[in-house]
Amino acid sequence: MNTLDLLIRAIARLPGLGRKSATRIAYHMLASDRSEAQRLAELLHTLHDSIIRCSVCGSFTEDDPCPVCTDSGRDRATICVVEHPQDVAAMEASNEYHGLYHVLGGVIAPIEGVGPGDLAIGSLVRRCTEPEIHEVIIATNPTVEGDTTALYVAQQLENNTNVAVTRLALGLPVGGDLEYADRLTLARSLRGRTSLGRD
Amino acid sequence: MNTLDLLIRAIARLPGLGRKSATRIAYHMLASDRSEAQRLAELLHTLHDSIIRCSVCGSFTEDDPCPVCTDSGRDRATICVVEHPQDVAAMEASNEYHGLYHVLGGVIAPIEGVGPGDLAIGSLVRRCTEPEIHEVIIATNPTVEGDTTALYVAQQLENNTNVAVTRLALGLPVGGDLEYADRLTLARSLRGRTSLGRD
Lengths: 199, 199
Description:
Largest interface: A-B, 44 and 44 residues
Order of helices and strands of chain A: HHHEEHEHEHEHEH
Strand content of chain A: 5-15%
CATH architecture of the largest domain in chain A: 3-Layer(aba) Sandwich
Number of strands of chain A: 6
Strand order of the largest sheet of chain A: 4-3-5-6
Distance between the termini of chain A: 67 Å
Shape of chain A: globular
Helix content of chain A: 40-55%
Largest sheet of chain A: 4 strands, parallel
CATH class of the largest domain in chain A: Alpha Beta
Radius of gyration of chain A: 21 Å
Low-confidence stretches of chain A: none
Oligomer: homodimer
Number of helices of chain A: 8
Mean pLDDT of chain A: 92
Structural class of chain A: alpha/beta
């Protein structure tokens, strides 16, 4: 098997890519300037050395603690709890949240052998015993596991700290279509309906 | 901008990938074992040194001439003409063709400034003056440029050699749906209809 086939195989293993798209990417690399492949190779080579986990919040960062954790301009009374480091990037992209983060590193999933002890819940509780923290927004995914984890985390925080615990709203996605909304989403968006005009 | 952002940018420039899928891939890399990123880096690093163009047919190969051009077990009387090296891989995957190849390196596209002189047409004509070549199958894409190029190549071969020139059949794709077939494809599949049962 030659380098090209090996490269196609390696690319096809990446999430969201199959053999066809991997082939297309590999041939594109070959047809383009050598420097493009070299640059990507260099970035991949140094990736694990330059990007580490923030010892406070668990995000990926080049410096420890991460720029968010050390930014005195942010709202240091609020912590947003997410499953994965990439969720931090998604929240940041919304430009709506200006507080701190805490990455759990996954969700409670007994079938996959992931219990509360495998997640960064203890360190979250410890962070929330600091008097400056007022609110924890739980932003785990709206899935069975995400909801279970949210409930568990909320319970731990309520038992051990004085922070207010909230959860991201569920409802119709912006630009969505009522006709195509699933039953559960529609039910949750009804239950969580907000008043118009008078508040 | 840190390594992670640079990596996401570099991946997002690849064909078929956008910022979201690039982000997903980059975080997957970070979350997986370091060896996976290292292996991909190594393959990309050596890609342009280990894969070259075959001096006979123009395919990508590790050895020159390529394994297809030197394989005495293949049908050496037929040459299949394709636009790009990846088309050779597609033809090979069909398991139906056992002859030789010739990669043009593109199509005639005056708007993009690509004329016949920029394609490997001269070398194809030279190959076809060899008495062992009997047939040239033109397998350029069924697009305006692909058809123009096919006609031009056919003319060159007819003027300068004695080979028979054929073109891949046009028609409905296997597993396709008449209802969703476009007008032109349907027209071509009608014009090229084949007899059933009696031949």
